[in-house]
Fold these 2 entries.
Entry 1:
Amino acid sequence: MRIDVLTLFPEVCEAFFSASIIKRARSAGVVEISCTNFRDFAEDRHRSVDDKPFGGGPGMVMMCGPVFAAVEDVEARHPGPHTRVLLTPQGQRFDQSIARELAGQTHLVVICGHYEGFDERIRLGLTPREISIGDYVLSGGEAAAMVVVDAVVRLLPGALGDEASTDQESFAQGMLEYPQYTRPQVFRGMRVPEVLLSGDHKRVEQWRQEQALERTRQRRPDLLKRRAQE
Ligand code: 9D3
């Protein structure tokens, strides 16, 4: 898979994509990621990428010219099909099933705004899939791009090492995690549950399932309802 992130802050995005799992996936050739600055596609000597809204009002609006030019450039340089993703508070709420859908594509072209909205003709002309990561106000699409790319890349075959795929497994699917412990056995008077020290794998597995279920029931009953429907 190839991912192009188009943004006013390519260095911020690039730094995030150069760490941890994504860094390893890139080195392994699982995904090719490139971050491009809209400003490189500005059309005036001030390198403008945004302007005041027609009709007045606060804030600035991302201009069509640099956005269309950046999208058309990355798409022309790589064979399709291309999946255009516009990160916006007005988009469909991102979740694991959208991550799975995006992970099945060939080339994601991810468009981030900053502080501001997009000229409506970007939606009309580029017909991107519009995605939001949740109901809170961010300063721009960059943090959302990092969230989406992170969730997508870890689904690509070969992106994770050996510790992989365990959360795809039967019981844990769609539930919260069971409580985990490591050394020491006692910390400030708090003991590790006896069952985990018993060496009885059957009991350990049963305890973990009970704990995961109870924790999910208490904190995220919506997950159990959704799970029952699937
Ligand atoms: C004038 C400010 N706005 C009304 C609240 C609109 C607005 C436009 C752009 C608010 C925030 C932003 C910047 N946010 C994003 O680009 C963004 C976002 C978000 O803020 N929340 C959740 N998901 C996303 S994806 C992109």
Entry 2:
Amino acid sequence: MTMKKIYIGMSADLIHPGHLNIINEGRKILEKSGGGELIVGLLTDKAIASYKRLPYMSWEQRRIVVENVKGVTSVVPQETLDYVPNLLKIKPDYVLHGDDWKTGIQAKTRQRIVDIMSQWGGKVIDIPYTEGISSTQLNNALKEIGTTPEIRCHRLRRLLDSKDIVTICESHNGLSGLIVENTSIEENGKKIEFDGIWISSLTQSAAQGKPDIGYLDTTSRMGTLNEILEVTTKPIIYDGDNGGPQEHFVFTVKTLERLGVSAIIIEDKVGLKKNSLFGTEVFQQQDNPEDFAEKIKAGKQAQITQDFMIIARIESLILEQGMDDAIARAKIYLDAGADGIMIHSRKKTFDEIKEFARLYNQFSNRKPLVVVPSSYNQVTESELIENNINVVIYANHLLRAAYPAMVNAAKSILENHRCKEASDEYCMNIKDIITLIPGAK
Ligand code: SPV
Ligand code: MG
């Protein structure tokens, strides 16, 4: 009797009876045929992130769990969603999978595996799907439980390691936080959603009816941040304006880290804060790069974990100081310990950011590059990826979308001297709003 090889591909983030059933069926086959190997192809974070949300546990943590499941003889990384590279290497006799993959988007994947396996006489065995439990259900339950500051904080670094581009969307209160947390679409069988949340100084100020001039104090900003933290699990990037005086900045770093925020972005400006998108229309002064570098260093010394990130935002292009100045500053800030660079522009085209990225990408100590395409909004995520840009922040769109809708409703009530038209044209159903948030009833 020849020793058989069985291959089972899985993410195994939350091991449940469905997984164990498939492994058990594999074990039974091996027992009948006189033994052999049961190899689990454990999908890497990168493979999982290519089609759905990053798993809760890291690959190493998942490996430890799966290795200790009865019947598993070895665990190998499956680097892509596609089984084929591993199958060609291992040439298993059987691939086992839940029979739910016979229909829908996975049917194609299955057929490809059937075809490849036939090259060496291998077979696909479809195991009857275990009803009543699924990873999707468990994931939803986990989302309700929430997360911990440590897990949330670390998540941004994991995303940077596993995704071509990390997508971040602005949120300015609990409700918009829920939208960033829960909105998703299906595209070619993949679930697309935002990876994280931007706490914008502009939209947080605007939502409170204040200009973006650094008027909201840290306590007030932390109030909104807490509102958002309470109802979300995704990683958070906090807009820290210029970080304040160094003596204050170190406290802010510690506070954010304690709350589980993943990163703060601070800009190299001094004096009364004005929104960058005004550019040179208003008086804005850039910080001396050496002084700003000192602030970065102090922040890095203040943080306690390895995970928290301080990202330096360069305002040279906004203030028309030229590309050389922007690049020189990027060097100084990285040398000071910055964990990433955000380069901002108010140009209508992507050109100057593209040029910055080209020069920046040649740095030997390059760290993640962050952009905020509010002005050059035609740029696509694929173009950003082509230019090696790691994080895109959609910095203000939820608030900008909500505002005109509210103005329209207000005008409609005034014009009609009643609220029927506003309700019919601009509003969600009353039943929907009272039950919008889970737990309302
Ligand atoms: C913010 O969202 O507050 C930002 C980005 O800092 S910008 O408004 O473009 O300066
Ligand atoms: Mg801001």
